[in-house]
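forwarding from the other thread:

> can someone predict this with heme C?

sure thing
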Amino acid sequence: MKKIETLIGYLSLAGFLSTAALALFAVGNLIFMAVPDAAVAASSEPAAQELATAPDATEGEDPEEDTTFLDGFTNPPVRTAEEQSSIEARVAALTADVEGMDYERARYHPLHFPPQAAQASNEECLVCHQEIMTAKPLEQSPAGVSASDTMAWYQTLATYGGDQQTFHYRHLQSDYAKSVMNLQCTFCHKGNDPREESPDMIPGRDLFSAASTPEFTLRKMVNPSTTCLRCHGAFPYEHMDGVEANWPEARLDFEDEETPNGCLTCHGEYGFRTNRHNVTYLNAHEIEDLATASSDTCYGCHGGRQWYRISYPYPRHVWPDMDEETPDWAIDRPTQSDPEYQRPETAQSE
Ligand code: HEC
Ligand code: HEC
Ligand code: HEC
Ligand code: HEC
Ligand code: HEC
């Protein structure tokens, strides 16, 4: 029965998600896994959603609780009043500009391309692209299957709340997305040639001069391997001494009522790779805070919503008590996050 639900979930996923996201799935060697029992059991707990809607309410509730580890992680700083008013001024100017602007001019607006794209705020893009925030998936597939009667396998994560939604909603608007992430349009959209959709033809740049890791891949608007893969790769347990199987199976040995997050057995205070998530597009504090309730928070971005057979080659930051010897798989790994997403201050206290 569960398998059937999974299959229906897949069909409806195919039916309801934007063709855009699907194009990426095809490229990404999508694997459909059977719904793991443990994940199903976990899905009956609505706790994650409640936590997600009240990110601050969980802090300091229990005076007995030692929050030193949590406090070591911070979210990216909010905008300063200056930054905010500069964005408001740009939005106002753009809004005035758009009045009577013809389609081609809007379509090739310099905000779409480097260098302006790198500085663009979501508000500026949304002057012209409100539809991104209001689009809704079909309630029923063309074949008559209702979205509310089906379940996609990623909906079995305890962190999932609400109905199936559009791709943009799930990354910019859902309570959960807003609590764990801080995504900008330009995190994914780094320029595009609307005519050829080739990274070698970005307006304002020499032809055929795209970088070896281009801003987007041919006929796509994004580069999946530098965006989606970060949070939708496989669970890299082959790099984890002591984890012998994928998480739905492995977690059975690590978790019980007292220990709802088995990842933290090894990745908690005094654990491995504790210097993590110190990037502008993640809310590092919120992630660790929510993760105290369930490993689905961690697993969600590290295997639980897996669209790819491979996992992202994460940078390997130095952590306290790190072994001096580098394992073979990590020899070519960077030791810092991508410069464009680095935060000056550290998210993990020493
Ligand atoms: C997490 C990555 C991501 C973020 C963040 C994101 N997008 Fe997208 N967007 C995509 C992908 C993927 C597609 C489909 C691309 C394709 O077909 O190749 C897309 C498609 C679009 C399209 C084409 C129309 C459509 O619905 O397919 C527009 C317009 C767009 N995005 C605007 C925006 C704006 C404006 C923002 C910020 C408010 C934004 N996007 C944020 C990944 C993202
Ligand atoms: C002045 C209005 C305007 C602004 C500002 C603007 N866009 Fe667009 N954008 C357009 C128009 C018009 C199109 C063409 C839409 C179509 O043909 O359906 C377009 C197309 C796109 C597409 C789809 C390209 C394709 O090949 O189909 C994406 C993705 C996109 N914009 C993202 C963004 C992002 C991200 C920003 C902010 C950095 C942004 N836009 C700012 C007007 C604008
Ligand atoms: C920074 C992490 C991150 C990145 C990058 C990212 N995602 Fe996600 N994605 C998430 C999270 C978290 C959720 C769950 C959101 C929720 O439960 O509301 C999600 C949910 C989804 C879903 C489920 C949608 C639904 O209907 O519920 C799809 C499909 C998806 N992502 C595809 C993509 C694709 C394609 C890309 C690249 C263009 C991408 N994601 C990039 C974190 C990410
Ligand atoms: C039995 C201990 C253990 C458990 C349980 C465990 N991990 Fe790990 N994990 C490790 C070790 C050891 C490493 C590798 C450390 C190093 O870089 O040398 C690692 C590495 C990682 C990496 C980086 C992989 C890479 O390729 O860079 C991620 C991401 C990760 N773990 C996430 C998780 C998540 C999420 C969970 C729970 C769903 C989890 N781990 C459970 C021990 C564990
Ligand atoms: C919203 C998605 C998301 C969630 C939730 C999440 N991670 Fe990550 N994780 C990422 C991304 C993206 C990176 C890469 C960040 C970078 O580029 O530095 C990462 C990096 C890591 C690394 C590599 C650290 C390093 O830089 O050496 C480890 C280990 C890890 N995560 C474990 C965890 C654990 C444990 C949890 C739960 C407490 C968790 N993650 C929750 C997205 C997520």
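Residues 81-98 form the longest helix (18 residues). thats all i got for now
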